[in-house]
Predict the 3D structure of the following.
Amino acid sequence: MRLNRTKQRLQQGRVAVGISHSQLGTAEIPKMFAAANLDWVFLDSEHSPFSSDTLHDLIRAYLMTDVTVVVRVCDFQYDLVSRALDSGAEGIIFPRCEDPEQLAQAIRGAKFPPQGRRGYGLGPPQVGYRGMTFAEIMSHANEQTLLIAQIESATALERLDEMAAVPGLDALLVGPADLSISLGVPGDWKHPKLVAAIDRTIAACNANGIFPAIQVRDFELADFWIDRGMKLIGCGNDLALLWQAVSSLAKRLRGKADGGSG
């Protein structure tokens, strides 16, 4: 079983950069993101059309690259978490976290005993067809799996310190879109209320020895938050990047074609 490249990078005090993969179900995307030298990706099963089969195939494709593959599940249900992990996911993002006890229960479901209650369903494909004992596999998975709670509401901010202290948690990831809506400043990425809330999240992470994380929409916001202490950065997603590229190219082509036709 391989080491979690992104978790290692974070433990070394370095910034890990990645992207959201939420719409395009082709294995060329993992190869492209790997060639671009991204550290991690989160496969989004909350806001995507991916079936469980597509999710499984994409996870397996990422495992053939150096990119750490993390799955955002759509809910806290144990079966959603266990199926993603049994497919080979190297991390889980739990969305809409507001209750520390619910989060603690979900994390226990993502870890093998004695740290948790995850059922054993791994076989040769999940361990790279290597001869490993149950104890070795369970210990490796518990140590290497990256577990992330998403902060997306004013309610979550009220219990921020409690959630940051949940045993087994590796990172708090801010979802600025939903958080900005909850704070009454929808889409205002530099509003003082939103910036202050995200700064509080960074402080809570630092105080509890876990990693502050955020998903943003462009490089300028990523640059802003890296400078303010974010360590795990997701920037953009597959379809948005494709749209930006094709719309820019089409605009230039249309300008040339229409300008030359007169």
